[in-house]
Amino acid sequence: MPRGSLSILSQVTDSDSAAAAPSARPGRSGRGGKRERLVKAAVQVFHEQGVEKTTLGDIARAAEVPLGNVYYYFKTKDQLVEAAVDAHCEQLDALTVQLDTLPDPAARLTALVAGWVDQRETAARFGCPFGTLATELDKRDDGLDRAAAQVMRALLDWVESQFAQLGRADAAALAVDLVAAYQGISVLTNTLRDPGLMAAQGERLRSWIAGIAQRQASGRAAHAVGEAFVEEEDVRLTRPR
Predict the structure, then answer these.
(1) Are 96 and 162 within 8 A, CB to CB?
(2) Span 196-227, pLDDT tens digits
(3) Domains, in order of start, for the chain
């Protein structure tokens, strides 16, 4: 796969790249460069030190924007959290569009895993940018938890669609297996500060995906041979003797 594609694929777990995506859904357009810088800084700082420990002052400093200007765009920290979730959502949309340009579902899933592994150093320091945010927001009941869940659901749905295209009746379960394997290894990689754990898990996941695709292809080939044999027998039996 071209290196340019891989750099796009890694963005779903890259704080800077996620923040560089459009920072609002339709109806929430930004007001120039300062707002975009604030959202980018919020994504990064939330990832590095968590939502609860982050102040508007921290975000203003990271964005190099006067604190007073923050209130022009965001009245509360929760509004910045919402904008950060939106940024991750937009980046996931962009990522899956890029992945869909690859030739087959196995290649798309393998590229997704490669993008995750490419961010192993970041995961070792701070964990998965979106996974850590979603976990923190899950402790709340103000709607931000549901917004984060929708992003994770969108990822699961896309992964499920790839396994479904591989002909798997258990596509939903396989999608959970894949995403859970990544999120779990992100926690271990971060806890043990060992990026090699994610690299090794990536190899296992790539082999797993390749095995699923190969078995499915073999099954289709065997089915095609069987159908050809049945057709040949039908022709032979209907010939005049």
Answers:
(1) no
(2) 999 999 999 999 999 999 998 876 655 554 55
(3) 3-238 (1.10.357.10)
